[in-house]
Every structure is written in C-alpha cells, then in structure tokens.
Design goal:
The complex is a heterodimer. Chain A is mainly beta. In chain B, a hairpin with a 4-residue loop joins strand 8 and strand 9. Chain B is globular and about 45 Å long. The chains are: A mainly beta, B mainly beta. At the A-B interface, strand 4, strand 5, strand 9 and strand 10 of A face strand 6, strand 10 and strand 11 of B.
Chain lengths: ~120, ~120
C-alpha cells in the first residue's frame, strides 16, 4: 500500500506570494491533518480534515487555509507569505475514527523556504 | 489540557550502549502516548504507542517504553544503540474531543550515536 505522498517536496517563494501544497493520503484513510515544523516552535498542528470538512484548526492566522476533496486528497494554502512561514509542512493521514489511539501516518513533508 | 515534556533536547551515546530518552506527560486522565522518530530529511514514523493496555510497550527496531502513572512518565529505551538510530525522537500525546483529533508533540530529543 502506498504511503502518504506530498508534492512538491521543496519550494522557494518570496515574501508576499502565496503557495499551495498537496497531500495524498493512504488509500482508505479519510482523515488528513497538517503540521508545521520549525526549529524554534517544533511541530505544531495546523488543521484536520475529514470528509471534506475541517474538524479542527490550530492556532495559526487566517492566511493558512486548507481543503479536502472527495477522494480525501488535501491541499493547504498559505497566502501573503512571511519569512517566518519557512518550515517543513507535514501531512498525516489516519483512518476515520476519533479514538485516542488512532495512528497518524506521515508523509515526507514539503520544505518551504520564503525569501 | 494535555502536554508532554521531553527532558533532554540532545542525547549522545556510544554504539552498543543503552539508550534512554525521557518523556513526562501532563493529563487529567490516563492518556494514550506515542513515540515517533524522524530521520534527517524524512517524515515521522511511529515507533510505538501506549493505549492503556500493557504498560510496557514494545515497538519497532528494538525500542520499548514503559508507562508509569505514578511518575507520569513514558521513557523510551533500547538496550543497544545502532548507528542507524541516530535521529530525532518525539513523545506525542493524541487528543480527541469535540469531533476532532490532533497530536501534540514534545520538543524532540536528538539522538547522536558515536561509533
């Protein structure tokens, strides 16, 4: 079974631009979550989608948004990029349950550099 | 609110010696707890998880962790370190509630293995 895939793997943008990152979950997984990883803040939860609906959102400004399609693929968008948005963005997928023991499977991430 | 604290940001061991990575948790109820590993330029991989069954949990690659409620700890151990264990390790507490699911990560412990 193929794992979680993320595209592109690397991106370089300039301040003020916008960017869209894509995530394809493991087949059969309907929950997709996004995390931001930076050296200073560590791993922080961005949002979670299930059946095309955002179920939860972390403490990030409105410039960060996402969506999920009917095939469970997800995209996240960051508008008006700032230097501090430079990070590794990780996508994770899991089965649809809300149980606390659900395993999230992570993709390799998209490395975003904002100049 | 649930949280985890990883007590060491960096641990260095010699190849063949034991590994101990420390994690304390804070929760108002008995939590589930996970350990994830991240190799350089890779995504996160689940090592093991505690879900209120056996308190001693065995994971992949010879790692194990013991849930100790009296000490609010979930330390990760391995009897003998290999060079391939060099990576960053994250103690994680999952949260599910109000129709959502997310992971809260510790700050991470970078493990170096000296040949």
């Amino acid at each position: 079974k193929a794992g979680v895939t993320q595209t592109p793997r690397y991106l370089i943008k300039t301040r003020g631009q916008q960017v869209t990152l894509s995530c394809s979950p493991i087949s059969g997984h309907r929950s997709v979550s996004w995390y931001q990883q930076t050296p200073g803040q560590g791993l922080q939860f961005l949002f979670e989608y299930f059946s095309e609906t955002q179920r939860n959102k972390g403490n990030f400004p409105g410039r960060f948004s996402g969506r999920q399609f009917s095939n469970s693929r997800s995209e996240m968008n960051v508008s008006t990029l700032e230097l501090g948005d430079s990070a590794l963005y990780l996508c994770a997928s899991s089965l649809p349950g809300l149980a606390r023991q659900d395993t999230q499977y992570f993709g390799p991430g998209t490395r975003l550099t904002v100049l | 609110a649930q949280s985890v604290t990883q007590l060491d940001s960096h641990v260095s061991v010699s190849e063949g010696t034991p590994v101990l990575l420390r994690c304390n948790y804070s929760s108002s109820y008995s939590p589930s707890l996970f350990w994830y590993v991240q190799h350089p330029n890779k995504g996160l991989q689940l090592l093991l998880k505690y879900t209120s069954a056996a308190t001693l949990v065995k994971g992949i690659n010879g790692f194990e962790a013991e849930f100790k409620k009296s000490e609010t700890s979930f330390h990760l151990t391995k009897p003998s370190a290999h060079m391939s264990d060099a990576a960053e390790y994250f103690c994680v507490v999952p949260y599910s509630g109000a129709g959502s699911y997310q992971l809260t990560f510790g700050k991470g412990t970078k493990l170096s293995v000296i040949p």
